[in-house]
# Entry
Amino acid sequence: MKFEVHGPYDLAMDSKGLISMKENSPFWKTVQDHTPGLPDACGCYVFRVAGKGAKPCYVGKTETQSFKKECSSPDKRLKYIEIFPKRKRGSTPQLFFLAQIKVNGGFSKPAKNKGSRPLIEELESILIGKALTKNKKLLNVRGTGKVKQIEVKGFLNSSGSGHIGLPAQKLRKTLGR
# Structure
């Protein structure tokens, strides 16, 4: 199964400096105009804050509803507000979409039954693991417990300072950390 990465798309801010992510917001028209069909597709998404660096803040998936419905839901809007309460100078809230692609091309639409898209769930787990290496305060709760418990010295969740051995350095380079 294939996925395509789209974005990052800058999230719109309202007059109070808060993220505006309702289903009828101009954000979704921008996404639709840039990539027709993407708002109605399914897959995974990554919310990040970009500025002097870029930090992933939340990873999500959508199997039974579209990106537009999932990312605009009240609970997700609350997460965005928690992460990015007001515009911070020099930082921009953004979304990446990793859309599932059908065999014949085009975007996969949401499924009727939860669990019928196991590769979306698998991809979400991989993305959460990668995001945790960049941001230990990732807002995700589900899917992070086991990853946070695993420590590989010099590579994953390792604590303390000191010399990182050559094997760990080479593994980091190999796996892109």
Remarks:
- The chain has a mean pLDDT of 83.
